[in-house]
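Structure Section — protein described below
Tokens — whole-number codes for backbone shape
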Amino acid sequence: MNANSSFFGDLLTSIADRGRAWIDGSGRTSGATKAATLVERCEALLSGKGEASGVALAAEILDRYVRMKTGERIAFFESLAENFGADRARLEKALGALPKAKSDTAVAAAIAEIHAASEPRRQELFRRFNLAPGATLRLVRMREQLMDAMERRRDLGPVDSDFAHLFSTWFNRGFLVLRRIDWSTPANVLEKIIRYEAVHAIRDWNDLRARVDSPDRRCYAFFHPALVDEPLIFVEVALTREPPAAIAPILDERRETLEPEKATTAVFYSISNCQRGLGGVTFGNFLIKQVVEEISREIPSLTTFVTLSPVPGFRAWLEAERKAEASVALTDADKELLQAIDAPGWAEAPEVEKTLAPVLAAAAAFYLVVARSPKGRPLDPVARFHLGNGARLERVNPMGDLSAKGLAQAAGVMVNYRYVLPDIEKNHEAFAGKGEVVASPAVKKLVRPDAEKRALVPAG
């Protein structure tokens, strides 16, 4: 894959160089071209027909964009939103032609014209940008900067929607390549694994080696041919004898390693998206399913596939419930016991397992199984991800992550989602079609009998 991508990149660079020479005859842009605005260059790119000149112009536009300051970039995004939408006159003409179409052929042609006319010009502009060498990654970075701008400029949403639409096609599952990450992986990729790890930070190279080079550990990532050394998403896997209830033993570099053939359980304990600019493009469900297939072929003794997942929104939800005068999830006795979590070092107290752990487990079960957003969706993003992929909520682990991050985000709670291969499609349909949270009997028992009768919408 590296050799092919390198050849293709060199070819595009060569075309771009020739195109620059064609534009001005000297390989340098003319004074008129230098004086033109970036928007004018975009218009020229859209109207141009020559391939070599198009590649060169796309490369020049992206080079100029990279040198822009924040305010200039926002002005550029404004122009994309205002000046590069659908051609309204063409669309109105196409819509008017449809009622006049008499034959099936004429109707089909009218519909095709409506489809073409309704596409924003931005989408074709982005396609032409992508002609430039290395453009795909630069466009992903451009969208990241657009997402930053959208924190205050929601009116730029249509531009973002066009990026998302094109990326969902360009990063289709058929183009993705699964690669195992191990100690022989190039150092520049390993450095990115350290940098992009978003769930359990990798402390140093020794920590990384323990995660990717131990006999009972695996790491897999999806790559795209246009982003050869840039992982899109990766998953870390632990091979164990049984589903774990806590993350610390999994991350312990001094643990006793397990021979892979003695493992019965594959634990997906960290899934990290690497490219923020690809937000909204689905990779994770394909990744987990393919890794299950890959690792099952390698280690036939594996019969159980689970996650050890964080519950990132639980602590904030719990605090809101503690403050609520009337909480369906918490009793007054629960609230009194939960005062303990306000004290520093509370998780180290010896009585926690008997006093607080049951209350936290019950509250977490309610949060995951019963609580809903105003749109009727489970509140937790990790839960939505795994349930949407067809997993079931298997177990709540109240003292699963006692790190500072785990306590701040989830009061120490972690959960196991289980992927039972014959049930994946059924579970997915139950969640997608009816919003049902498929949970094990053990989890359901944690929810108070009357809780499922009332859906809870969190404050705020």
